[in-house]
């Protein structure tokens, strides 16, 4: 069975307006189907947990829903609306700002840039969203296009 590199960026939001939520849905759904590429957690401790906590969700309930229901993205957001406790505009804005403002540590940044043949200089991406995009694109290239 082929596995899939999740290519939805953490910088993408769905109709609810929450950054990273579509990526969380994709990764958890791929993991539930046994199709998530190696090295990717279905729901990790970084952005995934930030979104779960930021929306006032229960991790195991969210993952259980995805596992049992195999929801479409709109069905997933409908579940979020029923189960989240922090869905007001201010909470979502605060969460989105935290996602956009998060930077990887120096070691992670340097490793991603180096793996992509990019210098770690003033022009290099510093934020985790763009660095993760580079990492995903490299993984996709190696898994599918090379």
Taking pLDDT < 50 over at least 5 consecutive residues as the criterion, the unreliable ranges are: none
Globular, elongated, flat, extended or rod-shaped: what is the shape? globular
- Measured between the Cα atoms of the first and last residue, the distance is 18 Å
Could you estimate the helical fraction of the residues in percent?
A: 55-70%
Domain module tally: 2
Q: Could you give the count of β-strands? A: 0
> Can you summarize the main beta sheet?
none
Tally of helical runs: 7
**Element pattern in H and E:** HHHHHHH
Radius of gyration: 16 Å
Question: What's the quick description here?
Answer:
The protein is mostly helical.
Please tell me about this protein's structure.
It contains seven helices and no strands. By secondary structure, it is an all-alpha fold. The chain has helices spanning 21-32, 47-54, 59-69, 73-83, 89-101, 106-115, 128-145. The two termini are 18 Å apart. It is 57% helix and 0% strand. It folds into two domains: 14-102, no CATH class; 103-146, no CATH class.
